[in-house]
Write a structure and sequence with these properties.
single chain, 286 residues, alpha/beta, TIM Barrel, ten-stranded mixed sheet, two-stranded antiparallel sheet, disordered C terminus, binds iron/sulfur cluster
Amino acid sequence: MEIVKKLVSKDNSVKYLLKMEDGNTIETLYMYDGQLKLTYHSTVCVSSQVGCSQGCFFCATGKQGFVRNLTSLEITEQVDTCVSYCREMNLMPIDAVVFAGMGEPLMNYENVKEAIVNIYEKYKIGNFEIATVGLTPKIDKLISDFKGSPINIRLNLSLHASSNESRKPIMPVTSKYSIESIIDAAVKYAETFKRKTRLRYMIFKGINDTELDLQRLEALLKGKPLKLIISAYNDNNIKGLTAPKQSEVIDFYNKLKDKIDCGIFHNFGADIKGGCGQLRQENIED
Ligand code: SF4
């Protein structure tokens, strides 16, 4: 894999644009938590597909369409690149690999699974996270494949709306898998692995940050083994979407925090186009 671009952020994150043998490019993000605030301090965010078929309205990768799945080797090579960087810079070894780059990892299930096992065996990295729009049959498969395994996979479901009606326009997958079925799968996953499942909620100013959203989120999540992680939409110039101010994100969080388990997500590498697909999109448009 060839490094086409390497951007180093003020927060020490590094974003790579990598070119594969067939000329396709993907993004990989290395996230360094120098202040030791988060669970994992040295993390790689990998891509699992070139492009993506899910068409989430807010996503730069979704706009590019689906090209192909990555092989398990191409996924592992992204981790190899970041391991080399950490060694060169004398940073702490990588402690987690997150599938939250380009693509929907559960649409490339077998290669993602093989890569997880390879990375675990090669580097003894035992912590993984899969970010998904909520393909519930594949969540069931993850449960049956990794139950009892020493490999720890945290599930991170993209919710981003509080009703099916409001989620469909921004996440078309909702027509296939309803919010209720996704939450059922998330609860089952949490109960199996005895660890709360995370649900991501990206705030789009004026769209999903109303009083009604707060009420619906409370009704959906209260008392369940789930944690809502709230963040600002990482602005990538998509028409009709506005990023909230950080104070508005905090305000939304404050209104929920005594009702359901929730937290605020840190956007790594905002100054180096840390949101998924942005760097590749810019290169395509060059
Ligand atoms: S957010 Fe994820 S699943 Fe949705 S279009 Fe983007 S890459 Fe695909």
